[in-house]
């Protein structure tokens, strides 16, 4: 029997306890021994809840208990999570976490510490909720040079964009609906501004290339400027608009970007709708593989956390290697990022647009008056910005994937 | 440095050598040491090819060389692969294989032998080509009770069905085209009769439930009876037809089936087209996850084989546990399998169909005369067969997923 402690009895924490209880038999079989929750750390008490007898308010109790081999950190945020996790690893306990901020910021350091102490620091739930993506990147896609990772990494914004697409609703309406359904928070910036997706693509890219990608270096745009009109153009072109986190290897180095992008209807990510997430990985030998599932939610996230705990039980006394080292990976500057762009501009500027962007095809969308759209050839962001600044009547632009 | 031997220098075998050469740097980093091919076993010689100096014709040379720690078996078929693999494990060498026949038939036994000898027997490439599915099932989906596995497991037939759907071509035409393109073999039975998909769903089900599922026990239908007319009905109902391998847990036990099935346009497998494969796994905590990619081909398959080799290098001296035991898993009898059915019948039998199947909605497809279609309520295969036998004018039926 292995004793574990859970830090934080919120949504995911209570999910972890529930999964361990409900699936006890299967989990015991897969781990090789039973897994018992001995402590739950929370500031609150839960009188009447059976969990109450396991509640402790002092982390030191957990740290000092030699019976505790594995700690589950599901508090979220950098502090005190960072301090708690570091201390756990230092005293030789393995950690499983769902905390993307923590992993994006301190992942390399905590992995190095785990390696040094011959324990494990696993974080399957930090990206894609229940979707297995961290372990496959670490252990399955090991024969390939990774050429590209592109994902729908945030369920809230994917739900909102799906609603805008299918119901023709505007941004404010779908945000309110998402908030009412509990998919979006009252302060939705982390989701709608792309910050959440940014941390996740930073984690995936670090794991794929074995160096530290600082999420602050990734140019990040959210979905707040996406309108019903954009979707009308997308429909006219038989495309969709998705908030994508992407990183790709090119001659000049590694590019990374988070932004809403147009994707063609035959792209594997096109039909990933509602709160679902999906991550597409391109390897130089295996081609495209995609991982799809619920990117959030109590039980899917808890399932991923518990799968890490099972792995840690199976690897007691051995460190599971990753290639993520602390050296900083310098991304190619945003202005050198190459893409095609979808552009909207006011009627009457078509000739100027042609003079600037070459032989473009003008596109009109049903129900949209006074303006037109077109798609550029591939060019760098810098080139595009330069040309754009000369196009009077420019309205908006969206990256094309 | 780790020395390996490759058994069979066919498509996959040469792909393995190519991947190990092309991606040597990345693979060395991920495995922790360099991986070198010391021998290639093949009956043929390859004069002028650099591989020639590594060619051996006598397997004993490989078995007797203590430098060889890992053997890659990519010959296919049961013999001599089975004998070779067994001998390798017996003398303490790990094995990585792409051989689905071997794994479906002898997987449990070879895993037990590997465990006993403290080496590894891995077979990521045996299902889904380059798609990581075996390792995720073994190591990621460990917190869940698996409720269902449903997959498009054969690229040849998926290519053919996609062509029938999009080009309105008939079965014989698309088979010939698939053969011309090298997607289908001259003797295409293994693919078109569903035998290949059957072995793959047997492997996945064995791994998910930890017992031996004998593929002979799985009711298997191929796509040879699927016609253009079936696709016209599918279109009328906004559905697709896919050859699916499926197993699911129900109150009465475990059901498994391979057959062409109708699936709705919002099903995650609906948009998996051409030679792509995808496997949908439903867990009781994590919900639906799907794994998508190229299900065959030289480099994708080789990539999966090499990822196993990397894992074996990282786990030298430790056996990677699976729960697949040799005890036989008794599947629920086919006649008790519950499904809805799509039925085609001759005009004039509508009243009888209603008397037998209740309040059904009659469906007519564009360009199809003299007959109609309908979808039944969920019922067992046995019940369906009984009712069907009473419906004069019955033409065909397809399972609904």
From TrEMBL, chains A, B:
EC category: oxidoreductase
Note the superkingdom of the native organism. Answer: Bacteria
Q: Which residues form the Aspartate/homoserine dehydrogenase NAD-binding domain?
A: 8-124
Pfam families from the xrefs?
Answer: Homoserine_dh (PF00742), NAD_binding_3 (PF03447)
Enumerate the GO terms in the molecular function aspect. Answer: homoserine dehydrogenase activity
Which keywords annotate this record?
Amino-acid biosynthesis, Methionine biosynthesis, Oxidoreductase, Threonine biosynthesis
Instruction: Specify the pathway.
Output: Amino-acid biosynthesis; L-threonine biosynthesis; L-threonine from L-aspartate: step 3/5; Amino-acid biosynthesis; L-methionine biosynthesis via de novo pathway; L-homoserine from L-aspartate: step 3/3
E.C. number: 1.1.1.3
Q: Which residues form the Homoserine dehydrogenase catalytic domain?
A: 132-310
Q: InterPro entries from the entry?
A: Asp/hSer_DH_NAD-bd, HDH, HDH_cat, NAD(P)-bd_dom_sf
Similarity field: Belongs to the homoserine dehydrogenase family.
List the PANTHER family hit by this protein, alphabetically: HOMOSERINE DEHYDROGENASE
Q: What is this protein called?
A: Homoserine dehydrogenase
Q: Which organism is it from?
A: Coprococcus intestinihominis
The organism that produces this protein has a lineage beginning with: Bacteria, Bacillati, Bacillota, Clostridia, Lachnospirales
């Amino acid at each position: 029997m292995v004793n574990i402690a859970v830090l934080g009895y919120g949504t995911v924490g209570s999910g972890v306890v529930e999964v361990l209880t409900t699936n006890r038999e299967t989990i015991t079989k897969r781990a090789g021994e039973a897994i018992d929750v001995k402590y739950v750390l929370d500031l609150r008490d839960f009188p009447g809840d059976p969990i109450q007898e396991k509640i402790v308010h002092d982390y030191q109790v957990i740290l000092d208990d030699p019976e505790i081999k594995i700690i589950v950190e599901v508090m979220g945020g950098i502090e005190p999570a960072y301090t708690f996790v570091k201390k756990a690893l230092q005293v030789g306990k393995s950690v499983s976490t769902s905390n993307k901020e923590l992993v994006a910021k301190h992942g390399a350091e905590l992995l190095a510490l785990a390696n040094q102490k011959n324990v494990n620091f696993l974080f399957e739930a930090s990206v894609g909720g229940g979707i297995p993506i961290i372990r496959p990147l670490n252990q399955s896609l090991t024969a390939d040079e990774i050429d590209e990772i592109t994902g729908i990494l945030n369920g809230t914004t994917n739900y909102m964009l799906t609603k805008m697409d299918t119901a023709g609703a505007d941004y404010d309406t779908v945000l309110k609906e998402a908030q009412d359904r509990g998919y979006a928070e009252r302060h939705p910036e982390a989701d709608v501004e792309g910050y959440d997706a940014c941390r996740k693509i930073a984690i995936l890219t670090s794991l794929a290339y074995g160096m530290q990608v600082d999420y602050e270096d990734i140019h990040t745009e959210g979905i707040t400027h996406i309108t019903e009109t954009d979707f009308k153009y997308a429909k006219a072109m038989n495309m969709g608009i998705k908030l994508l986190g992407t990183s790709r290897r090119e001659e000049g180095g590694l590019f990374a970007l988070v932004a809403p992008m147009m994707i063609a209807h035959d792209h594997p990510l096109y039909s990933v709708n509602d709160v679902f997430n999906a991550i597409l990985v391109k390897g130089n030998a295996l081609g495209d593989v995609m991982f799809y599932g619920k990117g959030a939610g109590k039980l899917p996230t808890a399932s991923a956390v518990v799968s890490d705990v099972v792995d840690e039980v199976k690897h007691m006394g051995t460190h599971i290697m990753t290639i993520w080292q602390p050296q900083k990976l310098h991304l190619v500057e945003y202005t050198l990022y190459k893409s095609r762009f979808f552009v909207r501009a006011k009627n009457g500027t078509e000739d100027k647009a042609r003079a600037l962007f070459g032989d473009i095809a003008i596109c009109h969308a049903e129900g949209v008056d006074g303006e037109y759209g077109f798609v550029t050839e591939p060019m760098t962001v810098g080139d595009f910005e330069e040309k754009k600044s000369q196009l009077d009547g420019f309205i908006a632009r969206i990256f094309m994937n």
